[in-house]
Amino acid sequence: MAIETRPPHESDLETIDINVNVGPQHPATHGVFRMVLTIDGELVVDVDPVIGYMHRGNEKLPENCDYRQVIGYHDRTDYLAQFNTEHCYVEAVERLAGIKPPERAEYIRVVLAEMNRIASHLMFFGAFGTDIGLFGTSFMYAFRDRETIQDFFEEITGERMMYNYFRPGGVAWDLPDNFRQRCSQVLDSVERGVEQLDGLMMENEVVLARCRGLSPVTVEDGINWGLSGPMLRATGLKHDIRRAEPYSIYDRFQFDIPTGKQGDVYDRLVVRLEEMHQSAWIVRQALETMPEGPIMAEGLKRVLRVPAGEVYMRVESPRGEYGVYLVSQGSDKPWRHKVRGASFSNLSALRAMSVGNFVSDVIIILGSIDIVLCEVDR
Amino acid sequence: MFLALVSGNPWLESLARLAIIAVLVPVTVIILTWVERKVIGRLQMRLGPMRVGPYGTLQGVADTIKLLTKEDVRPQTADRWVFELAPFVIVVPVFMAVVAIPFTADLFIQNLTLGVFYFVAVSGLSIVGFVMAGWGSDNKYALLGGVRAAAQLISYEIPLVMAIVAVAMLSQSLNLAVIVGAQEDTPNIAFQSLAFLIFAIAGLAELYRQPFDIPVAESEVVGGPFVEYSGIRWSMFQLGEFVNLVLISILGSLIFLGGWQWPWSVFDESVPVVAQIAMMAVKTAAFILFFMWMRASLPRLRIDQMMSFCWQLLLPFALLQIIINGLVLVYDWPNEILIPLSGAGAAGAVYLTYRAARATGVRYQPGYQTVGSVL
Amino acid sequence: MVHEAPTAAPAEPIEPGPVARLFQSALRGLALEIGQSPIDEVVSVRREDFARVMETAKNDERLALDYLRCLSGVDWLTDLETVYHLHSFKHGHSIAIKVRCPVSDAHIPSVSHLWETANWHERETQELFGLVFDGHPDPRPLLTEEGLGYYIMRKSHPLADIEEWQEDYLKTIEEAKAQMAAATGVAAPVDEKALKIQMAQQKAAIMKKARDDARAKGLSPEDEKAAVQEAIKKFEEEHAAGQAAAPTAPAKSVDERAAKIQLAQQKAALITKTRNEARARGVSPEEERQIVAEALKKFSEEQEQAAAAPQAAPAQAAAAPATPAAPMDRAAKIQLAQQKAALITKTRNEARARGVSPEEERQIVAEALKKFSEEQK
């Protein structure tokens, strides 16, 4: 009586991959985003990102709006970098209409946009810490400083989130008197907070073990996948629109472009952390040289008619290249108003970056893209 | 005093002891939830609960009332009995483990000769509850969490038990009271620092606390096995978790920190009961606060890192500690030689972890290739 | 058909910039139209050449446009256009490439084999504009899994009342139209919205034509504007003349909503009145409720009779030329209600002018109404 016994081999067992829906209501999807993970145990075999839950027609609505009414929609496109997006839009209108904003307005814009970059990166670090499993500590650290910046913005614009402050030709009203002193005060406290965040996150052994070498992206792939901003700089490409195609008055300031080495998740953290310091440096330079004077270009009509033409204006938003493609027919409304969201293109590389990793890694890869769903879906 | 009244009748006495547990343990848990929220709040520059009662002290009570009055929801497709029994399978062993814990030299429910053995055996049962909850919920997150919990608990049980075995070798007993009694002069942490390190880390993993909260990871599996539970069943999981926290802390303070013994012979002869309880409370609180501190400051490991950390680092070093202890026992070397040996082992383990975490380089990518367009 | 040059007047030929010149030398023999936007140079290519142009743009050493910044669709009413904004990290230059296709044949070769990032951009444009990108590896809709069925970014998709364009509503409209046609034998009324859109499109086309003509003639911007305005005015006059000649669209003459509101108001007044009377008599609440219900029922019956009345007398409807064909129940009812309302207003105003007391005023109005009803019968 011979019974052949052998341990079951993998080919004897019928195994199936299962689909897991992560989102649209999930703590780690940063909004209403869904990805359908096909998992084999803990390994992710396929990722299908599903977007569109936040589509509000942000490109269609401006076609029925006056040029100045559109500014508000840009606040709502990337609601973490409102000044950067507003900057892009008003600059696009100015380039098309040939309006030259006064010096002081340009300085105000740069100061606010750079402060906003710091606030946005702080938000990234807070949310990323939660993704990677910190029990809210990084979130609280980051939000303390972000709150400081938001209070500061509120003093200037009267709004905490949707500032609606830049105008084609300048800014809506002048800064408060104690601006310079308040701004450097805010910067000091924020930079101290950034140091603390640095100590909490960057040298943490668990963060190092999880983020180093995770989903490395080469420069060629990064370019081909349409990555931009910190995602692209993490691959090692020294590219920053503020430097490569200077808009506004960015050619007057000194700053470094931080880059990573292998484009992994850790490099993305490093680049964003360093960018906060660089932005603070730019703000300090701008505060020193900010002139007095008018804040609005003269001779602008109540109804802004932009001559027929087209322009694709791009700025370096905290998430990457934020672009506005504006086509005018000479009326007071844009004929076509396309928004190129930085996180739209960055998110499209999610599948390429995360297939073959573990479930928990896909979560932090998604977190490291720093998506804003309003900008992805528009 | 209360026990003295009923001490004549063994039945009455055991019933009274059980009643004390049944009341005391949930109260401790209610207090601990408040403490945890407060401690983590302060660590995160927040105030924590402040509204209910002075400094939010009644927050735990309010939470309990809320949880008890919430609807007990069961998914339609859930496996009914598996789903509904899982919380009990988790809570009952935890309460059973309390039986074997001595709180002072004379205050305990039952002094078991194989107390450590009983404790480890009983608390290992709760794995079944996690797997049941994960399987019975008919939810993929819960399933993933349940499987993760099983893997983690089984893995970390081994170094945990080995660390305890190392201490038991030294004390030549499995009776907790005897182990504490043997630490009259020097607590075991001095002789067994490597075992203590392993115990603390494996204890974190047993409790699903950061960095080992992989089975219940909020940002990945949304609470894991608990995802479909609500109301009283969810609070049973919570109860089990916190009682486990207390138990591991008490066990740690008993076998490593010398339990109710006061250091430097503060009391000449016998230590009064109140002082014993106070000492126990201090040592236990130290452990509990350590676990909470870890929770607020460490991110989560990945599951393969967690596993390889256990099998490649903790297990070999636990074996090393046992071998060292065996040598000392066999050749009758003085116990003091353990201090440098075990300390060196602990330093080695820390160094290896440090180095592994900082090893750079591109990670091995499994062989899944996307077909067609990569995006 | 090439989009008008943005800043410079089209009369003078545009000097190709350095990147555009590189294009010209790399693609000899192709018809490239070169323009200049405030930032980038713009190259318009024909659809036949498009695939070759993009291939060259990516792979030619001198161009090396390795980064696709943005892909936008533009609706030019008759044509659909796609604009590709490219950037070269190697040389640091940027350019925009445009390609057009007619709406009836909205196909453009996909470029996602050259730039992976075009994948999502093309899927989005395909969903929003109805442009088909041939050769796309994964042409599912991006924003909605099942697709919308209509293209919301096209100019023909109206911005307002979008919810009324949802599919279920369209279905009910179609059903209602069919019913009406069957009941009356009259063709269904023309869809107002479609008319409006058509009108807007015609207008836009005329404006464009006028402007193009003006530019071709080399007029100054002021003259150009005047010419355009004149063209529009002419078009509107023509349109108005056409409308006057054609029978008035029937659906237009009645305002359903106003009628409904009026009816509801009448009902509410009736309820209040009946209830007050009942209360004055001191009946129990149950009885009161019953009385009100009866009154309402009676009122509805009266309404139906009144609506049926014009149906019985087609001559009545013929008296009012602006009204639609008689059998439309509701329209007639509404018309009646409107006439009544006008009468009420008129009588009341007259009474007030005479300075009578409110009670008298109400009485006068009631009498006038009664008289009107009798006349109607």
- The pLDDT mean of chain A sits at 87
Number of DSSP-assigned strands of chain A: 8
Secondary-structure element pattern of chain C, one letter each: HEEHEEEEHEHHHHHHHH
What portion of the residues of chain C fall into strands of 2 or more residues?
5-15%
How much of the residues of chain A is beta strand, in percent?
5-15%
The side-by-side strand order for the widest beta sheet of chain A comes to 1-2-3
Describe the main β-sheet of chain A briefly. 3 strands, antiparallel
Number of domains of chain C: 3
Largest interface in this structure: A-B, 50 and 47 residues
Quaternary assembly: heterotrimer
Helix content of chain A: 40-55%
Report the uncertain regions of chain A.
none
Number of helices of chain A: 14
Backbone shape of chain A: globular
Describe the model.
The complex is a heterotrimer of chains A (378), B (375) and C (377). Chain A is of the alpha+beta class and 378 residues long. Helices cover 45% and strands 13% of the residues of chain A. Chain A has one domain (17-377): Cytochrome-c3 Hydrogenase, chain B (Orthogonal Bundle). Chain A has 14 helices and eight strands. In chain A, α3 runs antiparallel to α4 (137-157), α3 runs parallel beside α5 (179-201) and α4 runs antiparallel to α5 (179-201). Chain B is an all-alpha fold. Chain B has one domain. The N and C termini of chain B lie far apart (73 Å). Mean pLDDT of chain C is 74; it is low at 1-11, 246-254 and 310-327. Chain C folds into three domains: 18-134, Beta Polymerase, domain 2; 162-248, no CATH class; 252-376, no CATH class. The longest helix of chain C has 28 residues, at 285-312. The chains are: A alpha+beta (378), B mainly alpha (375), C alpha/beta (377). The interface between A and B is large, with 50 and 47 residues.
SSE layout and pairing:
The complex is a heterotrimer of chains A (378), B (375) and C (377).
Chain A: E1 18-22, E2 34-40, E3 43-50, H1 71-75, H2 82-97, H3 103-132, H4 137-157, E4 166-167, E5 170-171, H5 179-201, H6 205-211, H7 219-224, H8 230-234, H9 241-244, H10 265-289, E6 309-317, E7 320-328, E8 334-340, H11 342-348, H12 350-354, H13 359-369, H14 373-377
Antiparallel strand pairs in A: 1-2, 2-3, 4-5, 6-7, 7-8
Helix pairs in contact in A: 2-3, 3-4, 3-5, 3-10, 3-13, 4-5, 5-10
Chain B: H1 2-6, H2 10-43, H3 59-69, H4 80-98, H5 115-123, H6 126-136, H7 140-171, H8 176-181, H9 188-191, H10 193-206, H11 218-221, H12 231-255, H13 273-297, H14 303-331, H15 338-358
Helix pairs in contact in B: 2-3, 2-13, 3-12, 4-5, 4-6, 4-12, 6-7, 7-10, 7-14, 10-14, 10-15, 12-13, 14-15
Chain C: H1 18-26, E1 33-36, E2 41-45, H2 47-59, E3 67-75, E4 79-87, E5 94-102, E6 107-109, H3 118-129, E7 132-134, H4 167-184, H5 192-217, H6 221-245, H7 256-281, H8 285-312, H9 314-319, H10 329-354, H11 358-376
Parallel strand pairs in C: 2-5, 6-7
Antiparallel strand pairs in C: 1-2, 3-4, 4-5
